[in-house]
Amino acid sequence: MTVGFWLIRHAIVEENARAFLYGTMDVPLCPDSLVTQAPLHRALAERLPRPAAWLVTPLSRTRRTAEALFAAGYPRQELVEEPGLLEQGLGAWQGLRHAELPARLTGPPHLFWPLGGNERPPDGESMADVILRVGACLERLAEAHAGRNVVAISHGGAIRAAVAHCLAIGADNALHLAVQNLSLTRLERHPGGWRVVCVNELALI
User: Fold this and answer.
1) Who contacts 26 (Cβ-Cβ below 8 Å, separation ≥6)?
2) What 3-state class would DSSP assign to 132?
3) Candidates 3.40.50.1240, 3.10.290.10, 3.30.70.80, 3.40.50.1820; correct CATH number of 3-201?
4) Is 92 helix (H, G, I), strand (E, B) or coil?
5) 3-state secondary structure of 13
């Protein structure tokens, strides 16, 4: 049976956190943006399917985004943590300011990301690793939620990886995808394979 995945990138993080590579660090959301983007939360909450299973990652910014969507009108749901949808782990490079990273790279950066798709930070993950992790997670979730819709609050890197898995594209190609905060990416798992319905869709307000 078909499974619908509704992947949402968490709301924007606070300004100080955006000054460095935070990866899987548990940084807070921007409180001002939560207020100013309330209309976007309401439009997104109205757009999402009902009923649906709701997933978040172990990082508080995804749970806090889900709570904002419930406050905006979506009926409150049980939130299940799914580590398989975490952001790219940047290992020893987490916490570096952006200007400090180029000296650490072993290869060229990507045009749209600080490091190339196959660059693996010490004790971290490459984007290629993330695609394998997220792909395995999606396949497992598709089996567990056959015939249902799944709303997952996740991260930009993980959502790019999910699309890459569905389209069978490489890590550098995946990094060309734009995934904005509070954007919606829809994927469907059919008996014969994956379909990408939309990527980086922003709710109309």
Assistant:
1) 59, 60, 61
2) helix
3) 3.40.50.1240
4) helix
5) strand
Q: Kindly report, residue by residue over 126-184, the tens digit of the pLDDT.
A: 999 999 999 999 999 999 999 999 999 999 999 999 999 999 999 999 999 999 999 99
C-alpha triplet 158, 163, 166: angle, nearest 5°? 125
Interatomic CA distance for residues 8 and 4, integer angstroms:
13
Question: What are the DSSP calls for 157-183, one per residue?
Answer: HHHHHHHHHHHT--HHHHTT----TT-
Are 33 and 11 a contacting pair, CB within 8 Å?
yes
d(CA 95, CA 197): 35
Name the helix (H) or strand (E) containing 188.
strand 184-190
Determine which helix (DSSP H) or strand (DSSP E) holds 46, and give its type and residue range.
Answer: helix 38-47
* Residue ranges of the chain whose pLDDT lies below 70: 205
Strand 79-81 with 53-56, pairing: parallel
Decide if 156 contacts 150 (C-beta within 8 A).
Answer: no
Greatest alpha-carbon pair distance for the chain in Å reads 49
Stretch (H or E) spanning 3: strand 3-9
